Each structure stands twice: as structure tokens, then as C-alpha cells.
Amino acid sequence: MIEMKGVQKWYGGYQALRNVDLTVRRGEKIVLCGPSGSGKSTLIRCINRLEAIQQGSIVVNGHRLDDSIKAIDVVRQDVGMVFQSFNLFPHMTVLQNCTLAPIRARRIGRTEAEATARKYLERVRIGDQAEKYPAQLSGGQQQRVAIARALCMQPKVMLFDEPTSALDPEMVKEVLDTMIGLANDGMTMICVTHEMGFARQVADRVIFMAEGQIIEEGAPDAFFREPQHARTKQFLGEILAHH
Amino acid sequence: MIEMKGVQKWYGGYQALRNVDLTVRRGEKIVLCGPSGSGKSTLIRCINRLEAIQQGSIVVNGHRLDDSIKAIDVVRQDVGMVFQSFNLFPHMTVLQNCTLAPIRARRIGRTEAEATARKYLERVRIGDQAEKYPAQLSGGQQQRVAIARALCMQPKVMLFDEPTSALDPEMVKEVLDTMIGLANDGMTMICVTHEMGFARQVADRVIFMAEGQIIEEGAPDAFFREPQHARTKQFLGEILAHH
Amino acid sequence: MTPHFGLPEFGFLLRGLQWTVLLTLVAFAGGCTAGLAVALLRTCGHRSVEWITRIYIGIFQGTPLLLQLFVVYYGLALTGLKLDAFAAVAIGFTVNASAFLGEIWRGAIQAVPRGQTEAAMALGLHYSSRMRDIVLPQAIRISLPATIGYLVQLIKGTSLAAIVGFIELARAGQIVSNQTFQPLLVFGVVGAMYFILCWPLSWWGSRMEARLALANQR
Amino acid sequence: MGYTLDFSVVWHAMPALLWGCVGTLGLALAGMTLAMMIGVAGVAARDSKAAWLRALVIGFVETVRNTPFLVQIFFLFFALPLIGLKLNPTATAIIALGVNGGAYAIEIIRGGVQSIHKGQVEAGYALGLHKGQVFRFIVLKPALRAIYPSLTGQFIMLTLTSSICSAVSAYELTSVAQRIESDTFRSFEVYFFVTFLYLAISWLLMLGFAVVSHRFFSYPTR
Amino acid sequence: GTLEDVKKKGVVVIGIQGDNPPWGYVDSSGKQDGIDADMGRAFAEYLGVKAEFVPLAVANRIPALTTGRVDILFATMAMLPERAKAVQYSKPYVANEITLVAAQATPINSNADMGKYVIGVPRSSTQDTQVTNSAPAGTEIRRFDDDAATIQALLSGQVQAVGANSFYPQRLNAAKPELGFEPKLHFTALYNGACTRLGEKEWNETANKFIDQIKSNGKLAGFYAKWMKAPVPTFPESIPGVPFTAQ
Ligand SMILES: Nc1ncnc2c1ncn2[C@@H]1O[C@H](COP(=O)(O)OP(=O)(O)OP(=O)(O)O)[C@@H](O)[C@H]1O
Ligand SMILES: Nc1ncnc2c1ncn2[C@@H]1O[C@H](COP(=O)(O)OP(=O)(O)OP(=O)(O)O)[C@@H](O)[C@H]1O
Ligand SMILES: [Mg+2]
Ligand SMILES: [Mg+2]
Predict the structure, then answer these.
(1) Is residue D143 one of the residues assigned to a domain?
(2) Which UniProt keywords apply (chains A, B) (predicted)?
């Protein structure tokens, strides 16, 4: 489904990804964690080409990502993304947020697009808010709209970049539940998060990054029980310390 | 040390504090928790008169807070405050941040003020950053500077308003450790926080607020083990659910 | 020989006012169109294009409108392109306005959070759709107060069209003042007319600004 | 048409034109200084407790912002003598520029003060500082930094606006240019070159502003 | 364009002053009027075309002609040698006297006295040239955009005397009769001619023929009576440095 090989990424003189190899099978759920600045966001942003890479190759669903507009297009339609700060379009209603891309990028008719949108809004249990504007929703509701919006493009993979870290504690649960539902339906997912409960519950693999490299990976149970690397141990110690 | 009696506070037509009574003894450590909008910030902001109250009385260290500039002055010099969003002064170095108030409000000489500042910066383990500007520090470092800045006025009470909630997970610990150190040194503290580990470790009392009222209070062990009120139970359930 | 300031003179000022309004409309329409192009070029991502646009803006913001009109009026005539005064002034104002509006809108486009563009890209939207559906609607909202502020400047700036022979409001005022020898009265009336034209716009602009500021606080 | 460009007239008139630049710069700098004073005083008055003072400032700002500079300077030049205040053209020009720029400065500076996060002010109070100290040590510098681009932009506009002061016979670049033009009838050449001189002046000023900004307002931000 | 273009289009574009009564000004109804306007209309009639007036500021008259924005100037253009290098004058059609005007109470008896006062003139006008040449060095001369501002400056006391043409006293006294404005110094008698572009013979010849015609058929006398309240003076046969005909 996704294959990254020898990926190197620089921001100016700063190397953000160092020789990253990663293969994700169809239906697999990956949780990505690691300290701030370790390159987690950078990694998943490379997958749908929000960032260009300098070396290595990325193949998504059989399409090799290069500089051609066409390849980028195909990949972006296959890959849905949910950001930490939601990034809903504030000047559009929830429904318009969800139908814009299907209409403009997939060239689907409005009626069909709206039907699909309503289906996914129901799915994230927010169907009754379709006519509201993002600013009228709580953080948790906004993030669920963002998930529905990505789903409306019927992607084959979903990327999540700390989808709950901008939320008030009380709202985290509703978003995580939505994501768990999605995982149970068999969606391929890569998820940057520090919600270790979520990782335990749905992840097939947990991957730990530090300084632009993948340091360690494993099934959640093993990963949390007996991390191999000193860096991983230290990180898990800090994350779990005061909970 | 602090005595609030029958405190009522309105924002326009909205009542933010309803008949709040609270006594804090010298050296006591109080943790204040409760849902968003319950009036926690309002309560501690009344203590150093960032907000005026409409009814009731507040006595801090023997000084009754009224509208007189003098009373406000005395109380503000006795009470240090640390905000959620740090509020460091961006155009001053760390050292200047820490010496401004001692020099201008306490009229202490620069040399002495700097010596004190360096002492407290060491104390929060950030002595080597004295010449940097706030923007050059990480969130956790900034918050520790904010703590040092408050300490430089040698206050008798410290107020904390969610000091860790704007921080990345990894930085929470360094700030909490600083606060634990302070608590162990015997500082009187009132702390709004949802870090329950911290509450367990240092609080003498945990106070739960909802809708502008103090609903329940108790020693941390008892409070977490068997909360009395339904509202408290629900709140603790949500807070602790996914940890 | 020396009429007093009466109805006919007032009517004359009103006709000047008409020219002022007309010139403003033409300049604003032209400036908006060209300004949008300038703003898009200024943010297009190609270093060289951005620099050229930046210099263009720098030149027209860095010289007096009065002299720009002179140069357009006389300069274009020298190249054999002999426009009538109206066309020359329209071009002069358009070019000037495009620089100012272009700069205002560049700022607004860049003020739209980067995440908006990224979200649009992640959804597979192309440049034209990203601009039209996502960035510009928000940028226009952000820039509205400044745009209105510039419109007021433009209304006042049209008084400079007098130098190429237009009898717009300010010039009409001078003429009437010269005939009636009541400069204070005449300029008072002229000032009041400008004020009546500009003030509602200014008011609208600052209200919009206050609202946006409020929205940003949240 | 047989019109050939001849820039030699510009060359011969160079000394006069450069003196004109000096005149323009002088008017502009004096006008900016006055504008800045009016701006700061106006901001204080704008938020004063006296309602009449607030209304006065608002009325002043709105009047100036919504009428053309030409009308303002005519008014000053021909009206002030009526109340016995007969200022020479240079003084009139400086006052007109200062009053005009001051009205804009009031709004800009006010915006800057308001842009300071409330938490900054509260942190100041919480540390026991007084209102004046909070303004002086905490608000002022970041506020000036925040508005620096718009304030200097406004000052550049002010410099360009000074070209209109030739209408009351003030000595500045445009009036010099008009004299030369009327002696030589080489309108295009003269105006083209003078436009270039203005460009040089405003770019020079921008450079100066950048240096000042670097000197006084360069603390790191995120 | 050429004379032929003009006839084909049926419109002659005439540069004129817009705010300088009674020479050329726009009246309150927006109509161009004054002696220059009457001249312009008569000229258009002579060509058999319509007249289109372009009101010009003093300083813009010559550029407007040389850059081809207007076909001909009837714009209070005094016939001066230095200007004759830039434009082609016709024969004179109106006389004008340049004086220094001040209030009765202001004692100015000689050129040297000008040094004691602030003198206003319209920038780039004949008055400007005359005052600048006659006043002692160091005299403070203030230059305004046009006659209107110059007259206003004298009335409001910003200057104590102005370089004037024949009509200033009349207009000044209408505004403030109590001050009794009067000519103090006489600089020169000037003649105004129509202006066309240098080297365009056809235009110049046509203008001259037209002026000859209105002089002989009494039309000019009519204009003089209407605007100047005076008979037509005798015009000189030649003015040094100002050729009336194109070479
Ligand atoms: N646009 C950019 N230009 C320059 N450097 C960048 C850019 N984006 C990210 N970086 C740097 O690349 C490194 C990796 O950033 P990235 O955002 O991928 O980290 P992360 O693991 O997602 O951290 P966080 O948990 O804080 O989101 C960081 O050091 C960051 O400063
Ligand atoms: N300046 C103000 N004007 C009007 N209402 C206010 C103001 N400040 C706070 N409030 C209201 O008072 C109530 C209590 O606010 P407060 O900030 O004390 O809550 P809190 O318990 O600190 O919540 P949080 O956990 O979100 O910080 C809220 O409903 C809030 O909307
Ligand atoms: Mg990240
Ligand atoms: Mg709070």
C-alpha cells in the first residue's frame, strides 16, 4: 500500500528525515510516536507530498510519487489527511467543507457529493450539524468534521497528525472513538499520536522515531512492555510518568 | 494566609463566582480542578485583584483587599502568579524579565536584583539561559522562567493557572518537578491543574469547582478514591478515562 | 462679475463631485482587476516573478501620484499613444491602485493560515480551486478594512486629476473660489462634500476591522 | 510630432533639484515629528476619561482622514490669517503634514496598543507594577514594533504627500520641478526625473526606517 | 493632428485656461467662457468645425500643445522670446499689461521697494518672469499654482503685493473694496497670441489668416467691448525674438 525506501528530507541545511524505510500493508494501522521535532509530521506529510523529498522513493498504492503533477494528484486523491489544528474552511458550512473536494477534484455532481457527505457525517455522529459553520462547533466536533471531510474523497489510506492534541481533555474521547470505529472498518491508517490507550487498542505496529530516524517498532504490547532502545525507554517514561 | 468569604463575582449579567468561601493556611498547597468555565481562573485572579469582586471579602496575609491602590499594591507584592500562557515579556531577556519588577516595584538596586534573579533561575535549573529572549526557549523553559520571575518578588503565596496545559507532553514533567520542589520548600500554593499525579503528590487539599461554586473538597486520596458528588464523579471519569 | 456662492455655484461643485465619483469608480474597478493580478503574481512562488512584482509595487508606492499622472499623461503621448485625458487618468489611477491593492491583498493572502492551503492540497484541490474556493474568500474578508481604507484614499486622490484638466470636486472648488472670493466657504463646502462621500466608507471599514479583531481574539 | 527627449536640461538643473530634495526631506521629517507627537498625545486623549476630549479626538481624526490634503492645506493657508495667525508657507506645510499624518498616527498607534495581548498587561500588574510602568516597560516597545510597518508606511505616504505643498508656494521638490519645467518646457524629462528622485527619497527613508527597526526592535519572536 | 485631420473629424481641440476670468474660465453652468473662449469658438467656426475646450493649468499649457494633446492654444499666452523657442506664436490678438498690484496703503514706488515685501505670482506665468527679473535680489517671491491662489494669497494677507495682469485690480477690488488695490509698478505691455506647434506651417498660417479676418470684420472689436470694456488697441508689427509666422 505504502512503501518508503531510503527517504531523506532536508529543510535547508537541517535534515528532518534520515534514511527512512517504511512499508505499510493494506488495512494495517500504524501509530507513530516520538519526541517533539523527531520528524513524525514530516514523515506523514511526505506521503501525500505536502513536502517534497530529496532522496529515496515513495510508492503509494502502486503510484510512484515524483514531481509530476499527475502522480501527486492521484496520490492525494487516495490519501486522506487529518491535521492537529483541524484546518476546516471557516467560510463554508460543514456540508460545503465536505463536498468541495469531491465536486472540484473528483468532478462528482453536487447531489451525489452531498449524499456521500451526509453519509460520512452521520458516520462520525454529527449529521445534524451539516448546515453549521466550523466556528459554531466544539473542538471535538470540528475534528470529526475534518475526518468526515477526508473520508468523502473515499481515500484508501488515512493519515492523522496528532488529531487530539489540540482538544480539551473532555473532547478527546469522542474523536478517539471515531478513529477506533474507522480502524475497525478496516481502513489503512497512519496515526501520529501520544494517546497510548488508543495505540494499545487499535495499532498493529507502533513506530518510535527520534532525530529523523525510525528507532524502533513493534506490536503495541511488546513495544510498551519491553522497549529495546534507551531513547524509547526514556520517552515512554516521560510520557507515562504523570498519568 | 488567604481568607475568602462569601465572594460573589459577576461579568456583566453572568455570575462567575457564587458565594465562595475559602481559607488557605500558611504553607498549604491547594489544587483546584473542575470543568472548563467553572470559575477556577476567576477565583485565583480575584486573589491578586486582577478581577474586582462585587460582594464578599478577601484578606491576604492580613491585608483586606479593597479598592485602595495601597492594599492592591501590598497584596500583589505578596502574591506571585504564573499563567497558562507564560506571559513572558518578549522584548526582554530572561534576566530582564526577572529583574524588572524588583527594580521598578520594589525599588531594589540592579546588582542585587540580578543576583536574586540568577539565584532563582538556577533554582529552576535554567541559569545558563539568562541572556536569551523568551522566543528562543522551549515552552517548558519559558514556564520555568515565569516561575522564577514570580519568585524574584519573594512572594508569600504562589498562584498557578494551568501552568502545564499549554506545554508539549515532554515538557510537562520539568515544570511539574519545579513546582514539586517549590512545594517541598514550604511555599503556600494554589494551583489550577488537571495533572492528577501532581495533585496526589503534593496537594494538601483538592477542591472541585463547578458553575462558580466550590462543590467538594478533600485530601487527594479520599477525593480521588471516593468522590461524593455526582458532578465530581462524572468529571473525574472523563479526565481519567483514556490515561 | 463676482457672483456670490449660491445655487449655481453649488450645482457646479456637484458636477465636480460627479466627476470625482466617476473617476473613483473607474480607478477602483481597474485597480481591483490589476491589483488581483499583482497580488497573485506576488505570491506565486517563483522568485523572479515575485521580485519583479515587488519592484513594480515599490515604484508606484514610492512616488507621488501627482507625478505618476504627469508621466503617464505626457509620457504615453510621447510614444505616440495619444489618449484623451480621461483614459490617461484612468490608466494612471489604475496602475497606482493596482500597486496599493496588490500589496494589501498580498498581505491578506499570506495572512490566511498556511494550514488552509495544506488542507486544500491534501484534498487534491488544484491551484485555481485553492485560490478561488479557499484562499481568496478568506483573504478578501481579512483585507476588507484595508481595501475600504484605500478606497477612501482613492476618492481623495482623484483631486489630483485636476492637473491634467479635470474639473472634479477639488478643481471645481478652486474655480468657484476664484470667482466668488469666498475661499473659506467654498473649501468648507468642498471639504464637507468629500467628507460625506468618504466618511460612511471609513465608518464601515473601521466597524469591519473591529469585528475581525473580535473574531481573531476568539 | 518631432519631439525628441533631451535630458540635458535635467542635468543642468541638478543642483536646484537636489536642493528641492533637501526641502522635501525637511518638510517630511518635520511633519513626521509633529505627526508622532500628535499621535501619542491623541492616543492618550482618545482613551481619556473626559468624554468631550474623546469626541474631539475622534472628530479630528475623522475630519482629517476623510478630506483631501489639498483642501486641508488650503484651509490652513487661507483661514489661519483670519484669526491672525499668519504662518509662512513652510510652517503651514509642516503643520498641514503633521496634522494629516497625526490623524493617521493616532489610529495606528492605538491599534498597536490594543494588539498587545491582555496577558502581558496582567502579568505586569500581577508583578506589582503600576499602570504607567506597565505602559512604559511592557506595552510600548512591542506595540511600536507591531505597528512599525504601518507607521513607517504612513510616513512614506506623508513624504509623497508633501509634493502637494507646492500649492501654497512651499519650497520642495515639486515646486522646484515646476519652475524648471516652466523655464525649459521640458515637462516629460523633468517630471520623469523628479519621479525618480522621489523614488530615491522614499527608498532612502525606508532604508533608514529599517536601520532604526533593526537597532531598536530586533528581539526574536516566534 | 494636422489641419486636415481636424477638418475630417469635425472637431478642433483648443487649450484654454479654466479658471482665469475674464480670459478663459469655466462658468458655474460648466460652460467655457471668457475672451479666449470666444476666440476659440470663432476659430472653430472659421474652420467650419466644432470647438472642444481643454481647460489647462498655467504650467500645463505648453506641454499640452507640444505633446499633441491640443491642436492650438488660446490660453492667455503672452508672447515672450523664450517661449517662442518652444511654440509657434501667431499675430497678437489681445493686449495685456503686467503690473505690480498692492493695497493703496502699501508704499511701493520703485523696483527696489519690492524687496521689503513678500510678493506673490502665479508660477511660470509672465508675472513670474517680470517680477523675478525686476525685483532686487533676495526679494521673497512666493509662487502659486494659478491666478486664483495668487489673488487669494493677497486677500488673506499671506503676501503684500502680487505680479498682476490687467484684470487683477478689478477682481481684487470686487472682493475687498476697502483696501483699494491699485497698480504700483508697470512692468511691461504684453501681447497674447495663439500658439501652435513649431514647424507646423499650415496651422500657423491658418491662425494668422483667422486673426486678420476678425480684426478687419469687427468681430474682435465685439469681443473687446464685451470683455475688456475697451476699444481694440493697435498691435505692433513685430516683437523682437517672437516671429509671428513659421519659418
Ligand atoms: N518548514 C520547515 N522549515 C524548516 N524546518 C522545519 C520545517 N518543518 C519542520 N522543520 C523541522 O524539522 C524537524 C521535524 O519537524 P516535525 O514537525 O516533523 O516534528 P514532529 O515530530 O512532528 O514534532 P511535533 O511533535 O512537535 O509535531 C523539526 O526540527 C522542525 O524544526
Ligand atoms: N472577562 C470576562 N467577561 C465575561 N465573562 C467572562 C470573562 N472571563 C471569564 N468569563 C466567564 O466566566 C466563567 C468562568 O471563567 P473562568 O475563566 O474562571 O473558567 P475556568 O474554570 O478557568 O475555565 P477553563 O478551564 O476553561 O480555564 C466562564 O463562563 C467564562 O465564560
Ligand atoms: Mg508534528
Ligand atoms: Mg481558566
Answers:
(1) no
(2) ATP-binding, Nucleotide-binding, Transport
CA-to-CA dists, residue B54 to B40, B208, C13, angstroms: 17, 22, 59
Ligand 1 atom 3, closest CA: A11
Nearest CB to C119 within list A79, A83, A105: A83
Q: Return residues with CB closer than 5 A to ligand 3 (ion).
A: A 41
| Residue nearest atom 31 of ligand 1, based on CA coordinates | A37
Q: Whose CA is nearest to atom 30 of ligand 1?
A: A37
CATH number of the structural domain spanning residue D46: 1.10.3720.10
Q: What is the DSSP letter of B30?
A: E
Q: Which residue has the cell 505643498?
A: D165
Q: Do E170 and C171 touch (CB under 8 A)?
A: no
Q: Are residues E83 and D182 in contact, defined by beta-carbon separation less than 8 angstroms?
A: no
pLDDT at D1: 45
Cross-chain residue pair C178–E175, CB shorter than 8 Å: no
- Total domain count for chain D? 1
**E165 pLDDT exceeds 90?**
no
SS3 for B90?
A: coil
Q: Is residue D137 part of a domain?
A: no
Distance from CA of D103 to the nearest CA of C (A): 13
Q: Which three cell numbers stand for residue C65?
A: 501620484
Q: Give the pLDDT of residue B154.
A: 92
Residue D126 lies in a domain: no
Question: Which alpha helices (DSSP H) does chain C contain, by range?
Answer: 7-42, 47-61, 65-78, 85-111, 114-122, 127-129, 136-157, 169-180, 183-217
The number of CA neighbours under 13 Å toward the Cβ of A221 is: 0
Nearest to D86 among E62, E152, E158 (CB): E158
Nearest to B4 by CA among B214, B206, B196: B214
- Digit-coded pLDDT (tens) for E97-122: 899 999 999 999 999 999 999 999 98
State the pLDDT confidence band at C3, using cuts at 50, 70 and 90. Answer: low
Name the band, by pLDDT with cuts 50, 70 and 90, for residue C1: very low
Query: What atom of ligand 2 comes closest to residue B12's alpha carbon?
Result: 4
Among candidates D74, D174, D192 on the partner chain, residue whose Cβ is nearest the Cβ of C75: D192
Domains of chain C: 7-217 (1.10.3720.10)
Q: Is the dihedral of CA B161, B165, B168, B173 positive or negative?
A: positive
pTM for this entry: 0.80
- Could you read off the pLDDT of D130-169 as tens digits, one per residue? 888 998 899 888 998 889 988 999 999 999 999 989 888 8
Distances (CA, A) of D115 to D38, D110, D147, E95: 20, 9, 9, 66
Atom of ligand 1 nearest to the CA of A38: 21
Looking at all shown ligands, the one closest to residue B46's CA atom is 2
Radius of gyration of chain D (CA): 21
- Alpha carbons D222 and E12: distance in angstroms, whole number: 66
> What one-character DSSP code corresponds to residue D18?
H
Domain encompassing residue D191: 8-116+148-217
CB contact under 8 A, C194 and D114: no
**Are C and E neighbours with ≥3 CB pairs closer than 8 A?**
yes
Tell which atom from ligand 2 comes closest to the C-alpha of B84. Answer: 27
Instruction: Provide the pairing of β-strand B79-82 with A14-24.
Output: unpaired
Amino acid at B143: Q
What are C160-216's pLDDT values in tens digits? 887 777 888 988 888 888 777 777 888 899 999 999 999 999 999 888 888 877 766
Nearest to C112 by CA among C123, C122, C120: C120
State ipTM: 0.76
Which residue in C118, C117, B139, B164 sits closest to A36, CA to CA?
B139
3-state secondary structure of B20: strand
Residues of E in contact with D78 (CB under 8 A): 152-153, 156, 158
In-domain check, residue D3: no
